[in-house]
């Protein structure tokens, strides 16, 4: 296996940080229910926020880990997980942005997802 290029290493680091950050965020939401209020509009039930858990775990966190591993291994298999992760990241970012623009609430959700729009794959 050849040594990965610098951009592949940085890409893997960014993906790793995103996946760890998202896993910690979900852990906080499940273990500290009072934190949920900062990430959803006040009229939205917790279940609407928590319903994103499965897809976020697979498509955002899981695909990021998969892509990071593929980038470091340099085996040419990073395209699919990068596409899955990018789609989930862009969808989540735009959803949170629009939610904040429409309601004026849940600013932290939009703020936390903004880097996903600014730092593409």
How would you describe the overall organization of this protein?
- This protein has 5 helices and no strands.
- It has one domain.
- The radius of gyration is 15 Å and the shape is elongated.
- The model has no long low-confidence stretch (mean pLDDT 94).
- It is mainly alpha-helical and 121 residues long.
Largest sheet: none
Measured as a percent range, the helix fraction is over 70%
How many domains? The number is 1
Number of strands: 0
Summary tags:
121 residues, mainly alpha, 74% helix, 0% strand
Strands, helices and their partners?
Blueprint: H1 6-31, H2 46-50, H3 53-73, H4 79-103, H5 107-118
Helix pairs in contact: 1-3, 3-4, 4-5
Condensed summary:
The chain is mostly helical and 121 residues long.
């Amino acid at each position: 296996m050849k040594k990965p290029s610098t951009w592949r290493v940085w890409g893997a680091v960014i993906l790793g940080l995103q996946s760890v950050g998202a896993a910690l965020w979900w852990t906080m939401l499940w273990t500290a229910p009072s934190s949920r209020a900062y990430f959803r509009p006040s009229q939205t039930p917790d279940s609407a926020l928590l319903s994103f858990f499965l897809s976020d775990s697979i498509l955002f966190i899981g695909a990021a880990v998969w892509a990071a591993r593929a980038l470091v291994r340099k085996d040419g298999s990073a395209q699919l997980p990068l596409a899955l992760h990018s789609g989930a990241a862009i969808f989540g970012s735009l959803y949170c942005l629009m939610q904040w623009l429409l309601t004026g609430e849940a600013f932290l959700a939009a703020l936390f997802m903004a880097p996903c729009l600014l730092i593409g794959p």
